[in-house]
Design a protein that fits this description.
By secondary structure, the chain is mainly α. About 80% of the residues lie in helices and about 0% in strands.
């Protein structure tokens, strides 16, 4: 009989074990909801499934009486646009600066202390400053994402660049390669899959900064809607929105993982 540490689940088993916690949470919620609603039919803390379905139908499939737009769609597109712009810009900065600090000692000596210091500043603490400097428009929300995750990307990619075996660099120099050729033909290809991994790890923080910025100053967005309806204790709207954000985050992470596996199979094979 195999020891527990050596036992592995098959494809079906992995799916079953992955879904099991969600099933348990759903059952616990239904039991608690039924108990609270039996005691108080007007309880708003744990709404029934029928309340969820009505709220989802109203937010997702019925045009708003005020604007004529589908609220969930408008909120989703607004949040995803802000998130995409912030993450893409952060990834580009992280890639360039991370490779430079990881490959060029002089550049690392001048930039690394600044990046380290920026990474220690809580991004939410400077959110009021961003609103003062950039106003209450889209730029401040995007800048919060950039400031929040770029230092992490830079430091992670710098470490990955420093881990490239010195023997490979010496071999390229022996063959006559200059600094630019070493970076573009050796460092860059090895860093790209690690960039995707770093972006996947930073998505949770990016969502956090996005929701926080939308909660304070926005006219549409998933975070804006959640904090708008909280004053009415509208848990039938808040919980589906939280579940939708979770699904979107999972879908983005899954898409990045699959793309990385398709584009860089050698990297995942080595892992």
């Amino acid at each position: 009989m195999k020891k527990l540490i050596n036992r592995q689940a098959g494809p079906v088993g992995r799916w079953a074990l992955g879904l099991l916690p969600f099933v348990i949470l759903a059952v616990l919620y239904l039991v608690a909801s039924d108990a609270r609603l039996d005691a108080n039919p007007n309880d708003k803390l744990l709404p029934s499934l029928s309340s969820f379905s009505e709220a989802i139908e109203r937010m997702a499939f019925e045009p708003s009486k005020r604007s004529g737009e589908y609220t969930l769609l408008v909120d989703t597109l607004a949040s995803l646009q802000r998130l995409a712009i912030g993450v893409v810009i952060s990834a580009m900065i992280g890639l360039v600066v991370g490779i430079a600090t990881g490959s060029l000692p002089l550049f690392r000596a001048g930039i690394s202390p600044l990046v380290t210091g920026m990474s220690l500043v809580p991004p939410l603490a400077i959110l009021p400053i961003l609103f003062i400097i950039f106003g209450l428009g889209e730029l401040a929300k995007v800048m919060l994402i950039i400031i929040g995750i770029t230092p992490f990307l830079i430091r992670d990619l710098q470490q990955r660049a420093e881990e490239i075996p010195t023997e490979q660099i010496i071999k390229m120099q022996t063959l006559g390669a200059n600094t630019w050729q070493i970076i573009t033909r050796l460092v860059w290809p090895q860093i790209m899959p690690r960039l995707l991994s770093s972006v996947r790890l930073s998505l949770g923080s990016a969502w956090l900064f996005l929701i926080a910025a939308e909660a304070i100053a926005a006219t549409e967005g998933l975070g804006y809607r959640i904090f708008l309806v909280r004053r009415y204790l509208a848990m039938d709207v808040i919980l589906p929105y939280v579940a939708w954000i979770t699904f979107l985050a999972f879908a983005l992470d899954f898409a990045l993982k699959r793309y990385s596996q398709w584009r860089y199979p050698w990297f995942h094979g080595a892992q």
